[in-house]
Amino acid sequence: MRNLLLFLLPVFVWLSCSSSHEKTKDAGTAIAAAQNDSASAPEKINTGVALLMQTTKPVYGILQDREGNYWFATNGDGVFRYDGKVFTHFTVKNGLCNDFVRGIAADKNGNVWFATGSGLCTYDGNKFTTINPGSAGSSITDKSGNTWFCGEGGAFRYDGKTLDFVELPMVDADVALHKSQKNFNLFPYEVYCMLEDGSGNIWFGTAARGVCRYDGKNVTYFTDNGLSRAAIRSMVKDDAGNLWFGNNGMGLYRYDGKSFANFTVEQGLSNTDFLNTSHVTDKPGTLARVFAAAKDNSGNLWFGTFDAGAWRWDGHALVNYTKKDGLNSNAVHTIYMDQSGNLLFGGDSGQVFRFEGNRFVRFAAPGINR
Length: 370
What we know:
Oligomer: single chain
Radius of gyration: 20 Å
Structural class: mainly beta
Low-confidence stretches: 10-38, 46-53
């Protein structure tokens, strides 16, 4: 186990131009709110147009807020909000801190958070506020209501009042390298995904150091069975308490609390070409590049891949869904279950799909030909 470094961030607002200042809700660390006077009004898209028709960027995150609005994060074209009637498009022109949005979350105060390549920013229903100018990624909310965001070398944690950073300690070999190399690269410790287990531990999936478990004080690394050979991109917990980890190349791992089994190898669905060659080789019909994971209300596990569509595991059999089942491509970047139990899948070209029993239907305004 490793001792953990915890930093209480002097949370501040990044101001890119002149603006007015005011205190935000319950900001225990005196977070200042910045309203960009030069920000333009967001673009409203008529409900006669299908969702995200005006972007070709992939969808990396989905959220339904407490008001029932849907938010969709894109990799390069900001975010879109759908209130059931109108689609509204937000970009840096409207105050968003970066158009490359990697994750969305809602805090206990009802604010919507966006994790971007330029840091974290919030939206209170009227304006955007940049909280911390530093790269951030996907998010989770734990049982205590804390919101976590992936970061470089650790993760941000927000408890509704303060934002701190949980830094991952380096393994022994990297400590030695760090001492001997002036410009040691901390990329292996970049966090791509997180999960809270049944005991309240937070698990982090890293770029090249496998997975690690944080019990509130110490960090324990796991690199068993090739876990650290490629990035851990997704995590999910099943009804039996097993943890599942999606790796970008090695496939899907199942952890029963004692050992890690490579489920992809067990099922004969590996993509050895991707692992053994230097260029990207898509291979439909495999379960090797797992970028998304979720559990539905029936206990089924769903996995999204970069090159082979979506997979469903009911505990007994696997089913693969691809373009032939309604998806617009075989790349699934995110899977989200909304408040009604519907599963939404974010794919390429700015499109989102809802699973309807045996096929995928494009998420669109009512009355639209999908």
